[in-house]
Write a structure and sequence with these properties.
Elements: H1 7-32, H2 37-55, H3 59-64, H4 68-73, H5 77-87, H6 89-92, E1 94-105, E2 108-117, E3 122-131, E4 137-146
Length: about 150
Amino acid sequence: MKRAPAIATATTWKTAAYAAALLAALLLGPAGLACAGDDIADGQNVIRSQEEAFSRDDAAAAYDFAAPSIKSWYRAPDTFMFMVRNGYAPVYRHRSFEFGEARTFEGKIYQEVHIVDANGEAWEALYTLEPQRDGSVKISSCVLKKAVTS
């Protein structure tokens, strides 16, 4: 039976994944990462729908937007929601949630989100979404880090 990684381990992986995605975006630039308007809009709709489900404490609806890779770690909506509440508090509850830059690369959608949490602190999230066999798009990762403010 797979066990969910500890929050400290998840934080380390989140930071590494965020750095790798940003590095890829910087190195490949517009030539390597093409924006596909419809795909981006679909991805934003999925992210916004999950965010709205979190605001209603609707674990089942929020869980529906998670990709199978996420569901393999968190096998039930309540377990998934517990992880989000404890490991992604700014995503779960916030003052603002605004889309930033988005790109597609090798079939995946990378969407930046600027978040101000319930305490007024700024965060950056990088969502990765992947197309599914049924034609839908699901969230396969969300890397969260404190925003650098000047």
